């Protein structure tokens, strides 16, 4: 079943999209991310794996400066996007986030209709000029997130009235609709059934042809299926980063090895 | 790998009883729950009961103000008295004062009595004239000056009766009280009763209460809340236009943008403290800042509105900030995460969710502003004003009164008839408040949601 | 051109600017709005703001400065001998202004002949007569000099108008051109607009600061006068409050502070539990139908004028407490008491606590309630242990607001608790508050230069400091116990 | 701002009803707009009056007491040099109780003995412990002492203290004892100090509040203005003072001792600038209005026997020296 | 790897704990759960599987009447616990929920300290009498939920400051601490890494010795590992219910078959 992804995880070396140097993150006293150096490639799916609480979400949120919203959070080090330091004073975090979209770990739909949830991003970014275009982008995004069939009759009901997995897919649709250059997804399939999961994975694979995708996942199989690069975090450290193939077959670090060998889920 | 089994818990074991049979502890907790709920219901009952008592008193005292007793009688406009020069020259006719007109009215009433064969027993000429309100001569004079051709003819006019007579028909004045009352006598009331039986005197709906300006202490029957309503409307317009946007804007800045530092803390404490500043102090400020410094006129709704705006701002800011704070961060994250700017996040998502709280603050703030007298005392709005202000925006600079001022003034007046007026004005004020609330309540219900 | 017209033209220019901005941004992006940094409306707003704001500022500045400048101009036109009494200067100027207004009104109505218009000063008497006939009212003191000055006034006024018209419109056009030229696809129009809005927000917040400064300033000066006439030690540590007309007053603040605290505490002891329980019931138990009726009904309590509460206290509650509590308990026979005022004020304050708290409680996420209920809590446990702590900052804010109102209330205290300043523990005794004394000393009959009146300002300032201290404590407490959800 | 065309009046709440009656009649019988009459107390009115001259200051201040020297100085400093003082009449101060209760015939000494903090008993200064009126004087009814007196903000309080309590102090012979015991300065104070044990209740509100308090405490005796009493004769029973029943006549004649003059002050600089100012002042003190049969007297103002002098002074625009 | 659970899924037939008859759930117009009949056995782990949005959470919430809190939600039919109709007027939902605990799909820690989160249930139910007992139960529950080591040094920091997976485990610990007879767990491991997942599964297995556990999961492997009974939901219907072994090896309904054969995750 993993053949496809293994096949595609081919030789082409894409250029670096995001590069992090000596990134440290503190929550007050707590040192949550330690000294992380990483190059995230363009047109590539990168998976972040590691035990719960190891700093995956935290690091992910650094990449589009969502950590700015947490008062006690402090980021050090350098992260560049296409060579520009994103923590530079002149950088507009809003523009950054438009380029680097995010799906959060806990689904957080707006208390608006399903339609408005998805249409919001395109509207504020001026990606649509009229109702027809909006309808189109909403449908496309919801289809991409494998939600269209379930909600097409209730587009104008509140997004908060959806089931857990539906909300998760709605958030994916919402993020995809803004057409970011980099998409950060924090456990996007945690509440999805296998079929929905495979549809989302397919979406991720499609996105890869144009964008760069970073996905946090606890499912090693999923990481193996969708990603070309994998980063393994442990206790705030980036322990190992490399081709997904290598990580899962020839881990260099004993911690990586013990983590993936204890693999069950 | 889990190091302890839960089954052997050292804690007291759990009783596994039937669902319908409550164990002791659950029963206790349920009793506590019932009590708690009863406290809540009781609290609401107390609040509603207080409201009901207050409303009942206000209504029972004040509804009378909306009805008034009028006397209709033919008045012969004697040319000899009203236009001695005979030229129908306005300037000459203006020389005849209301005192002259009151004599005409007195004569007309006596004549009417004579025609209807109603005896004047025990009543002096003055006593009879006193049945008619002191407002009537002015009314007649204006009528004549507006149309000098009337002089010499006889016209049917409907005039207000004296406040005591009016009170008699509303039950405020009784024969027994009139006995001791130096301003009326049982004989006068008896005469009024006779007139009523003859159909010349009637108590009817009183629009004038809503449209007339205030009247002096001798004419409770003519006093109305017209100018007070206008003044309050003008002031509320100013407050609404200034306090709500400024208050919400300030809250947004402080809650969402301001760096969390000492300065912000100072501003926060400062605003909370402003809420505790007695309203009269805002009057001191208004006098100093708007009248003495900025040179705005005395007694003007614009100044009143500005002072009330400053006074309401803390209320609106405090409640708006609390409402903004209550919006869960995940909503903000969601919007920021798809590249909405902070401004967009706030205006598109946070503010609509905070709206119910903002509206509550606005309602309470406006209610407070609408009922406030003390600060107006110092900027000249607690005043006797008889000329209507013009339409806004110029009217904002004309002298005007306000509803609470009218209430305050009337409760201080000696004639008990003003107490009824004061309660009537309170009814108007509450209706005013209710109207303002309806919109807010409607909006609040639209925007209220849980997440 | 009247200012209002200038303003309207500026606004029209702003609208034009908006359209231009949108058009230009789109054309530079080759018609594809996606190539722009911001949405097209932001480019429009950007131009509109640049066109309107500086021009309107110029206009407003002129409106403020013009009277001053005109006054200066007029001073030259009014003969020195008339101005010698400096005190009357402003009156003469007002007179000139009235005359000028009357003249222009007359001119518009075509009342005046050409000769009269050419030389109003020479024809002062004739013009006066005509104006009076036409019912145009102006002060009767107008002399030929005044007419001359009025003419000068009108002239400089119209010159000033012309200048400002040109200036303001120039500013608008310049702003418009500048902003339009600045547009290019990478131009961060949204940031510009948002910076502007942020500036506006900051300006709004600073009003609160300005108010405080204004309050302090407007009281500081007179407080200074007071302390020159009355020793501060007696004021702050005196235990007797008895102002006298003929001097020799004792103006100790302590009994007033005591009364203020006592009454406020009782009022809060009534309003906080009732309000809080009402809020809890409304948001957690009542159906939305009940809530939508009860909540505005309770809010009516905040809108009833305090005089009604005052009368309620005076006529109903006071005698009742006296007859059923104070006298049977041997606690005196005063018709007015701290208890009366506190109870009645508590009723008035219920909605402050209940409505604001209700909104805050309602905003606590349902998932928290679910969490607690799912563990088998009763609803009341959920409320007490989970919902209320999460809503604490907002609730404390509501309580503070109620406390603030309690401290600032006059009418209820005057009628309910009386006017006598006493320090007593008995809640059935008459006492009074700082605010009441501020009002009564300010509106009383004592000489306005005497310490008996000036003490109002000192009281106000002291109260300000006291409440400030209380608020700082409250802020600290809230910070300490706050539970941030999510 | 456009020029204002109405007269602005501010000041005493005691003068307010008279001023509004005059203002209303003034506009009814002239082409001038009705003057705007504010109330905020004599002191506040005078303070505004002395703020300066000009369009945004008031023209007339009503006062229930003569302007003080210190206030005139403040006025002068602000440029308000020429002030016309106009006395419109007298305000009688009466004592009244519930209509259904006992009748009272007081002397100032009764009031002193009932309300003073310290009284003289057998030549000694002792704390006042009287609880019933008949303990003060046997002829008075057997009724609890409870008096509602104007609070210290009211000018009426000053009149009450001086013309009733201080006079009573002298009349009762306590003044001499105080002087002996305490010295001149303290004696005056001791004469006027009221007891604070709840028998004497300060009223900071107005007469309606006093009336309401009597309604809820039937054995209370209140201090009222004559006009207020006359409008409420069905609820109140007036007490005599030294045998004289208060009325406009007895007060005008000086037989009834407790009264005070009422004034208004006109800013002379505004005459000729504010339309109708002088006309209003003249109208206010005209016989038709302020005379013994005019509406002001009907309402309870004690007409000034020397009204003619006042009228002349107003016509001449005579200012205070 | 599944041996253990397969072994234990033995012959003992436990008695019925919960029995549902013709349960219908509507959200306003929406018919979310249709005609569900099911017997949930005592001392058994029952897994609910099915595509996202099929009504698993909704049915789960019926069992402890959590649906009462949703205004528009209407439940028909009958559910009994130990023979008592839980929708009976005389039944106290509070007592019901004390017996039937719940872990929600979206982690919802209280905005209190970690310690207070866990101690909350035991305190309100009077399971503890003093600090020592509370400490004990808190530690035990946190250990059971495999969170103890990560949080033992920060017990008095807010539970909302934890990572997604940590919050999920905190909620498990919180539910376990109240010692319910039935524990309903809505995707308890969705945000957990394999190791934490296996620890939680172990916990579930332990609980089974005394209680009845219902677990909603998207991972068929997990269902196979931990449950003895499996129910498959589809579009609101309970399609198939039976021994986990049977469901996964010999599904009777074609829909079940196609769902589990499309298995990926
Ligand atoms: N509060 C609600 N209001 C309206 N519809 C709802 C609500 N909650 C759930 N639904 C709908 O009911 C159906 C069943 O939802 P439920 O939450 O039970 O699904 P689920 O099986 O738990 O799915 P998931 O695996 O995604 O959590 C879905 O179609 C959902 O959209
Ligand atoms: N807001 C916060 N305040 C304090 N500490 C935090 C906060 N958010 C996360 N942490 C801590 O930082 C560490 C890393 O958290 P993070 O959310 O990045 O973990 P994660 O790898 O995403 O875990 P999971 O897989 O469970 O989501 C954890 O120990 C967590 O407790
Ligand atoms: Mg995470
Ligand atoms: Mg679910
Ligand atoms: O208001 P007064 O100054 O007359 O007490």
TrEMBL record, chains A, E:
CDD domains: ABC_PstB_phosphate_transporter. It is a peripheral membrane protein. InterPro entries: AAA+_ATPase, ABC_transporter-like_ATP-bd, ABC_transporter-like_CS, P-loop_NTPase, PstB-like. GO terms for cellular component: plasma membrane. Keywords: ATP-binding, Cell membrane, Hydrolase, Membrane, Nucleotide-binding, Phosphate transport, Translocase, Transport. Its EC number is 3.6.3.27. SMART domains: AAA (SM00382). Its main location: membrane. The keyword Acetylation does not apply. Pfam families: ABC_tran (PF00005). One of its GO terms (biological process) is phosphate ion transmembrane transport. It is found in: Cell inner membrane. It comes from the Bacteria. Part of the ABC transporter complex PstSACB involved in phosphate import. Responsible for energy coupling to the transport system. This is Phosphate transport system, ATP-binding protein. It comes from Paracoccus aminophilus JCM 7686.
Automatic annotation (TrEMBL), chain B:
Keywords: Cell membrane, Membrane, Transmembrane, Transmembrane helix, Transport. CDD domains: TM_PBP2. Residues 1-27 are annotated as: Disordered. It comes from the Bacteria. Residues 229-440 form the ABC transmembrane type-1 domain. One of its GO terms (molecular function) is phosphate transmembrane transporter activity. Pfam families: BPD_transp_1, DUF3333. It is a multi-pass membrane protein. It is found in: Cell inner membrane; Cell membrane. One of its GO terms (biological process) is phosphate ion transmembrane transport. GO terms for cellular component: plasma membrane. Gene3D superfamilies: MetI-like. The chain crosses the membrane at residues 36-59, 233-254, 274-296, 302-324, 345-367, 422-443. Belongs to the binding-protein-dependent transport system permease family. CysTW subfamily. This is Phosphate transport system permease protein PstA. It comes from Paracoccus aminophilus JCM 7686. The lineage of its organism: Bacteria, Pseudomonadati, Pseudomonadota, Alphaproteobacteria, Rhodobacterales.
From TrEMBL, chain C:
It is a multi-pass membrane protein. InterPro entries: MetI-like, MetI-like_sf, Phosphate_PstC, PstC_N. The chain crosses the membrane at residues 6-22, 43-65, 163-183, 195-221, 256-281, 301-321, 333-353, 386-407, 454-478. Residues 257-474 form the ABC transmembrane type-1 domain. It comes from the Bacteria. Keywords: Cell inner membrane, Cell membrane, Membrane, Phosphate transport, Transmembrane, Transmembrane helix, Transport. GO terms for cellular component: plasma membrane. It is found in: Cell inner membrane; Cell membrane. One of its GO terms (molecular function) is phosphate transmembrane transporter activity. PANTHER family: PHOSPHATE TRANSPORT SYSTEM PERMEASE, PHOSPHATE TRANSPORT SYSTEM PERMEASE PROTEIN. This is Phosphate transport system permease protein.
